Amino acid sequence: MTTTTRRAILAGAAALPALAIPAVAASADAELIELGRQLVPAITRNLEMEVRWNTECGKIHAAAEARVPRSDDPSNWAKTEAWLAAFKDESERAPESHRVAEAKLSAAAQTFDDLCKRILTLRPETLAGLGTLALATAAMLNTTGVYDHEPHEREVDEEYATALVEAVTRLAGVAIPFDTAV
User: Fold this and answer.
1) Are 182 and 147 in contact (CB under 8 A)?
2) What is the C-alpha separation between 79 and 85, in angstroms, rounded?
3) pLDDT value at position 157?
4) What's the rounded Cα separation, in Å, for the pair 90 and 87?
5) 159: which of 40, 43, 44, 154 fits an S-S bond (Cβ 3.0–4.6 Å)?
């Protein structure tokens, strides 16, 4: 029976080529890092499609508003129902550009979601991998509207989560492709 001592392990490690350990460490998060490379353009694409979708929805809202002014009075349910009916009618009559924008946003969001979900299942072993996980977390936080508020206006949990995510991405050298400070 062979007993492995710390001295034997250190002697074996010293015999390895100098680049063997960094190569092993770098490959430990290879899938995670590759997913991060795919995530950056997916985030950008999703944000671009949201702008197009919001523009198309704005047109429908304006058309419905022109027919029936929207009421902010919660007790005026009849006016709210009339506006909702006008909105539904305008949505059904929307031009093809509306449906195209909706389909493109749906596809972009699905790609974005799938990448984030896969990243979340992997456990990082390197700072670069951790940076990728933090980027996915920042992107998902962004979908909640957390970055729409000044840091001091965020809820306590949001403030801590965003501070941690931003610190990790900064240390890992991972750029967040959207504005995190209003």
Assistant:
1) yes
2) 10
3) 86
4) 5
5) 154
Q: Residue 23: what pLDDT? A: 42
C-beta pairs of 170-176 under 8 Å, 24+ apart in sequence: 171/127, 171/131, 172/127, 172/128, 172/130, 172/131, 172/132, 172/134, 173/128, 173/131, 174/36, 174/128, 174/131, 174/132, 174/134, 174/135, 175/40, 176/135, 176/138, 176/139
Q: Distance between CA atoms of 7 and 138, rounded to whole angstroms?
A: 44
| φ, ψ dihedrals at 36, nearest 5° | -65, -40
CA–CA gap between residue 166 and residue 126 (Å, rounded) = 17
Lowest-pLDDT range of 9-23, 44-58, 66-80, 133-147: 9-23
Measure Cα distances from 68 to 45, 63, 87 in Å: 34, 9, 9
pLDDT range class, residue 182, cuts 50, 70, 90: low
Measured distance CA(49)–CA(10) in Å, rounded: 54
Angle between helix 156-172 and 127-143 (nearest 10):
140
Q: Is the dihedral of CA 7, 10, 16, 17 positive or negative?
A: negative
42-91 tens-digit pLDDT: 999 999 999 999 999 999 989 999 998 887 787 888 888 888 999 999 99
